[in-house]
Specification:
The chain is mainly alpha-helical. It has helices at 8-22, 31-51, 59-71. The relative contact order is 0.05.
Length: 82
């Protein structure tokens, strides 16, 4: 995928257009798949809200994590500098 000259979203549009013109699914989820995924997501959300899952760790642990992240300059999931 990385060797292509076009970005991934341009490639996806091309595959989507080809699937419409050819009249067959080339790997995209169907409407049925989306409905099933949505139903499962709602059930998971309702279950989590009903059971009120316990927190893992202590407040001190979270404070240490946030203090470490505040000193980092590059990386995924860092808080925004304001």
């Amino acid at each position: 995928m990385w060797s292509y000259k076009d970005p991934w979203w341009v490639q996806v549009h091309g595959v989507f257009a080809k699937s419409i013109l050819a009249g067959k699914n080339l790997g995209f989820p169907s409407v049925r798949d989306s409905v099933i995924a949505s139903d499962i997501a709602w059930k998971m959300l309702e279950d989590a809200a009903k059971n009120d899952l316990p927190c893992i760790g202590k407040t001190q642990d979270m404070d240490e994590i946030l203090a470490r992240r505040s000193t980092l300059t590059n990386g995924y999931g860092l808080p925004l500098k304001r």
